[in-house]
Design brief:
The protein is an alpha/beta fold and 654 residues long. It has a domain at 2-373: ABC transporter type 1, transmembrane domain (ABC transporter transmembrane region fold). It has 20 helices and ten strands. It has helices at residues 2-10, 30-34, 65-100, 104-152, 156-161, 167-182, 184-255, 257-262, 266-318, 331-350, 352-373, 437-444, 467-472, 488-493, 501-510, 536-548, 566-581, 619-625, 628-644, 648-651, and strands spanning 396-403, 414-421, 426-431, 452-457, 460-461, 474-477, 554-558, 588-592, 604-609, 612-617. A six-stranded mixed sheet has the order 6-7-8-3-9-10, with helices on both faces. It has a four-stranded antiparallel sheet with strand order 2-1-4-5, with helices on one face. Helix 3 (65-100) packs antiparallel against helix 4 and helix 9 packs antiparallel against helix 10 (331-350). It is elongated and about 120 Å long. The termini are far apart. Bound molecules: adenosine-5'-diphosphate and magnesium ion. InterPro entries: AAA+_ATPase (IPR003593), ABC1_TM_dom (IPR011527), ABC1_TM_sf (IPR036640), ABC_transporter-like_ATP-bd (IPR003439), ABC_transporter-like_CS (IPR017871), P-loop_NTPase (IPR027417), Type_1_exporter (IPR039421). It holds the Pfam family ABC_membrane. Keywords: ATP-binding, Glycoprotein, Membrane, Nucleotide-binding, Repeat, Translocase, Transmembrane, Transmembrane helix, Transport.
């Protein structure tokens, strides 16, 4: 009996309370914590509804043979770990009997056994954690890369309908969740299962009657755990509502302090606050009462179970109950059977957390798979290129192109656009903002496909062309120069990593990057984050150089100067004009002009209105027509007049 109490003292009442779903009950203590099993606390979190999950094995999509091997080794470690945890109790029971019988040799044998179990536990524990985590870390890296690869290869349209800004965060969060489900949580789960199975099996083998008795008591304990879990949730809710109300009251007073003071309402407000706090306290006390009752009840059941088990054991022993081999049952047998089953029960309770981790890994996997499995229609992963390759863009034709953005299908952006641009032409697109100019450029880059009509490049339907070939032939400069935080040279070479020094010098001259010469480090100068070490005009010319070094046959300029101040705009415009006059090259340029005066001498000006080309021709012709273009020029001229006070209308050269 003394020995039995010694054992009981080693599993004292714990103070960690399960708060989720009643899946777990109290029963943590020094000895169990030392064994590292029951020390997992659970936060009182509500599992949000998870609509989509993937099959667990799908999470291993990127696992190599080594990862799988490591994972299995880890699980093997977990199984052995679970068995050794339970088996320790068995040896404990045996050793008690041997001490009782004062059989020194046998006792020593048992002590040695403890040591062996310790060694096994050491290695299996090491295996469990090391291998599952090694496997998990390796897969995590591959998953991250796969995730990002899948994201950057999505169609441009995909980014219109997904929150690209929150992607880095959600990638991280999802990968972490998946990793948890691939790593040591699974190890814990397997260990718990192993403990449960070992505990029950051993219990049934040793003394099935005793085992059944303990199994019958376990649900009673679960009830207590359930009461406590509910009470914990109640406390949280009560706190949230009443303290929330009190907080709101406090905030209101602070905001309306002058009014409160002016009406001498200070005491009134304090009383109101006090009343709310009192309510919060009442609620808190009620819930704590429930926790206390639940806790007491569980402990009572636990100790009751101890008592009942030992009474039952003693009763059976007295009635001459013998083991299968005819030996007498002893105190140690009661003990080991009782604790085998109890450990199994604990293990069952512990499964909630890892199961939840696996669940949330599967849900995160669903988010990952949504990206991995959404096959882009336009973009093809590198190496899976299909379609006809072209090296030069010569003619561009739009035939009754209809287009709506996938993110806003109700707005008809292009409404039967028809236009033709020949090789080497320098053309401009003008029109009110929102008339669809940038959309035309997006369609030429094939960021999107038209809903109806056709875009033809060199007379070939753009849908049958390889996007890589097409985009290699196009240089693009947008409104805001986008530079990467590296050297000028690297930024320019981004356009064509294979460019030679000679090419670099040439584009430097064409894009008028003379300002670089004045810098100490020249081309190697760091541009700063987002290129912020340069003026807008300088950045834009670097961006232009990047587009030119591709040796494109088509240059797209989308309001390339609109974000610049007057002086920078002039400089960049000069550069563009020069390019436009480079008649010895066959470079075709399409320029969206935000200031009409800058594109007067283009070969053709297309005037867009509400998604259709309403007029086209050279400046002079359009002015004589006195149509939409004329009206645009006049209104812009008037606006510029007001702005600058100069006679801008005259400048348009009517
Ligand atoms: N990515 C997008 N998603 C949804 N609507 C868009 C998108 N881009 C542009 N639009 C809409 O399409 C219309 C035409 O835009 P755009 O071609 O950029 O006009 P412009 O360049 O002539 O000012 C506008 O009404 C704009 O709001
Ligand atoms: Mg635009």
């Amino acid at each position: 009996a003394i020995l039995a109490r010694a054992v009981l003292a080693q599993t004292p009442t714990g103070d960690k309370v399960a708060t989720r779903g009643g899946a777990c009950w109290t029963g943590t203590g020094s000895s169990s914590e030392a064994m590292g099993m029951f020390s997992k606390t659970k936060e009182g979190e509500e599992a949000p509804p998870k609509p989509k999950t993937v099959a667990y094995h799908k999470l291993f999509k990127y696992a190599s043979c080594q990862d799988i091997t490591f994972f299995l080794l880890g699980l093997f470690g977990a199984v052995v770990q679970g068995i050794s945890q339970v088996y320790m109790i068995v040896v404990f029971g045996d050793i008690m009997d041997e001490i009782f019988l004062s059989n020194d040799d046998e006792t020593l044998e048992m002590v040695r056994m403890f040591m062996y179990i310790g060694i096994v536990a050491f290695f299996s524990g090491w295996m469990q954690f090391t291998f599952t985590n090694l496997s998990m870390e390796a897969q995590k890296q591959k998953l991250r890369l796969a995730y990002l690869t899948a994201v950057v290869h999505q169609d441009v349209a995909w980014f219109d309908t997904h929150q690209a800004g929150s992607l880095p965060e959600s990638i991280s969060a999802n990968i972490e969740k998946i990793a948890l489900g691939l790593g040591d949580k699974v190890g814990n789960l397997v260990m718990d299962v192993s403990m449960l199975v070992t505990g029950l099996t051993l219990g049934l083998c040793y003394w099935w009657k005793m085992t059944l008795l303990v199994i019958a008591i376990v649900p009673l304990m679960a009830v207590g755990a359930g009461v406590m879990a509910q009470a914990m949730t109640d406390i949280q809710n009560e706190n949230q509502t009443w303290y929330g109300k009190a907080g709101a009251c406090c905030e209101e007073v602070m905001r309306a302090l002058r009014t409160v003071v002016a009406f001498r309402g200070e005491q009134l407000e304090c009383d109101r606050y006090d009343a709310l706090l009192a309510e919060a306290k009442k609620g808190g006390v009620r819930a704590q009462l429930k926790v206390g009752i639940g806790m007491g009840y569980t402990m009572a059941i636990m100790f009751g179970a101890y008592g009942l088990a030992f009474w039952f054991g003693a009763y059976l022993m007295k009635n001459g109950e013998t083991k299968a081999d005819g030996d007498m049952f002893m105190a140690g047998d009661v003990m080991k059977t009782f604790f085998c089953v109890l450990f199994g029960g604990f293990a069952l309770g512990m499964m909630g957390e890892p199961l939840q981790a696996v669940d949330s890994a599967r849900a995160a996997g669903a988010a990952l798979y949504e990206v991995l499995e959404s096959k882009p229609l336009i973009e093809a992963l590198a190496g899976q290129e299909y379609g006809e390759k072209i090296s030069d863009v010569k003619t561009i034709e739009f035939k009754d192109v209809m287009f709506t953005y996938p993110a806003r299908p109700e707005v008809q952006v292009l409404n039967g656009t028809t236009l033709r641009i020949d090789a080497g032409q320098k053309v401009a697109l003008v029109g009110e903002s929102g008339s669809g100019k940038s959309t035309i450029i997006s369609l030429i880059e094939r960021f999107y496909d038209p809903a109806a009509g056709m875009v033809l490049i060199n007379g070939i339907d753009i849908k049958t062309l390889s996007t890589t070939g097409l985009r290699a032939a196009i240089g693009y400069v947008g409104q805001e120069p986008v530079l990467f935080a590296t050297s000028i040279k690297t930024n320019i070479m981004y356009g064509n990593p294979k460019a030679t020094e000679q090419d670099l010098l040439e584009v430097k001259q064409r894009a008028q990057l003379d300002f670089i010469d004045a810098m100490e480090t020249g081309m190697e100068t760091f541009v700063g984050a987002g290129g912020n070490q340069f003026s807008g005009g300088q950045k834009q010319r670097i961006a232009l150089a990047r587009a030119l070094i591709k040796k494109p046959s088509l240059l797209l300029l989308d309001e390339a100067t609109s974000a610049l101040d007057n002086k920078s705009e002039k400089m960049v415009q000069e550069t563009l004009d020069k390019l436009g006059q480079d008649s010895h090259t066959s470079l075709t340029t399409i320029e969206i002009a935000h200031r009409l005066s800058t594109v007067r001498n283009r070969d053709v000006i297309f005037v867009m209105q509400k998604g259709v080309v309403v007029e086209s021709g050279p400046h002079k012709e359009l002015m004589e027509k006195k149509g939409t273009y004329y009206a645009l020029v006049a209104s812009q001229g008037a606006a510029e007049n007001e702005e600058t006070g100069s006679a801008a209308v005259d400048n348009t050269g009517v």
